Amino acid sequence: MFVTGDSLCTYVGAQMSNLGTAKHLVQVTTVQRNGTGLTRPDFFNWQVNAQQEMAARDPEAVVMIIGGNDGWNMTTPDGKTVGWSSQAWQDEYARRVAVVMATFSEGGKRPVYWSAPPTARDPKWNGVFSRINQAVARAAASVPGARYVDLFSGTSVNGAYNDYVPYEGQNVLARQPDGIHFSYQGSRLPAGLLLDAIGADFGAVR
To answer: How many domains does the chain have?
Structure first.
């Protein structure tokens, strides 16, 4: 299994490996591309990277966790500049996600499990991430082999951001001081959600 994305994927990939390999059920390779996103292909082109990684690795499945750096304006194919609060921005983001999903999936050859950012402490970023999650869900519904795994709701507390989340009978400090990234211990929850989605296709993997 190939896990990639921005810095949000780092600890989640490590915990997926811990949870999955403990029973020798899944082998995880994680490659994080810190500071990248889909809104700035001039900085890092995820479609090109997806082509290169699939050609080099040919994994059975791909996990993508990205969006933490994606509050930038975008230019649509018809040349319009759109901001994150507009419907046109969400439409363009969904289009870009679908392109990269399809590149990873190669026509349904392998499943792609895509997660956008979780809730954020800062209200503006929480709004950006909410719109990104909506766009990813739309894109996944249109791409063969793509699945949207909801960490925005799945790691919240009663639908809202909280530094601490209940996990395995404990109240775990789930976030880093920036109010966005998961802590190492807190990454077990999103890792479990992703492994459960993968297990629905491959059988239990943790």
So the answer is: 1
For residues 139 and 146, give the distance between their C-alpha atoms in angstroms, rounded to a whole number: 8
Cα–Cα distance, 14 to 5 (Å, whole number): 13
Pair 65, 115: CB distance under 8 Å: yes
pLDDT tens digit sequence for 135-187: 999 999 999 999 999 999 999 999 999 999 999 899 999 999 999 999 999 99
Residue 121's domain comprises 2-202
Do residues 118 and 162 make contact, with C-beta atoms less than 8 angstroms apart?
Answer: no
Rounded Cα distance, 199 and 15, in Å = 16
**In the numeric block, which tokens belong to residue 8?**
């949000």
pTM for the full model? 0.96
Six-digit token pair at 134? 């909506």
β-pair partners for 190: none
CA–CA distances in Å: residue 188 to residues 73, 80, 99, 150: 32, 40, 29, 15
- CATH classification at residue 105: 3.40.50.1110
Residue-wise burial string across 89-120, b where 16 or more C-beta atoms lie within 10 A, e elsewhere: bbebbbbbbbebbbbbbbeeebbbbbbbbbbb
Per-residue pLDDT reduced to its tens digit, 15-52: 999 998 755 567 899 999 999 999 999 999 999 999 99
